[in-house]
Amino acid sequence: MKIVRVAVAVVIIADRVLIAKRATHQHQGGLWEFPGGKIEAGEELESALKRECKEELDIVPSIIKPLTVIEHTYPDKAVQLNVCIVPDYLGVPLGREGQPLQWCRLEKLSSYEFPEANKSIIELLQN
Questions:
Q1: With a threshold of 0.70, does the pTM exceed it?
Q2: CATH, residue 68
Q3: Per-residue pLDDT tens for 88-119?
Q4: 67 with 103: CB under 8 angstroms?
Q5: Which residues make up each annotated binding site for Mg(2+)?
Q6: What residue numbers does the annotated binding site cover?
Q7: In the chain, N or C terminus with fewer CB closer than 10 Å?
C-alpha cells in the first residue's frame, strides 16, 4: 500500500488550536482535523505546509516547528503525518475551501471527533 505523505499544521495561539471540519465527500468526511494536505513529489515539508496553509486558510506561517511524524494505516490507505506547530503567522484564518473553522481550547480537543491518525497528535498537545 502506498503511503500518502501529509503536512499537518497545528496552529496554536495561547491555549487555543485552530481546527477545521472535513467536507462530507472527503475521506474521513465530517470529522475535525488539523489543517494541512498532501506533500507533492519533490516538495519539502516547509514548502508544503506554507502552500497548504495559504490554500486552505489564507495564512502564511512565519514560524514552523516540527513536532512529530505519525504513520497510520486505514483500511483504504496509509498516511504519514508530518506534524508541525505554527505559533505565528501572517493573515487572518479563513476557510477558503468552505470548511468551518473553530478555535478550540487545548483541553477540549478530545471532545471533537477526529480521524484515528490525529488522536496521538491530540495526546501530545495535551501532555
A1: yes
A2: 3.90.79.10
A3: 999 999 999 889 999 999 999 999 999 888 99
A4: no
A5: 36, 56
A6: 22, 27, 33-36, 56, 118
A7: C
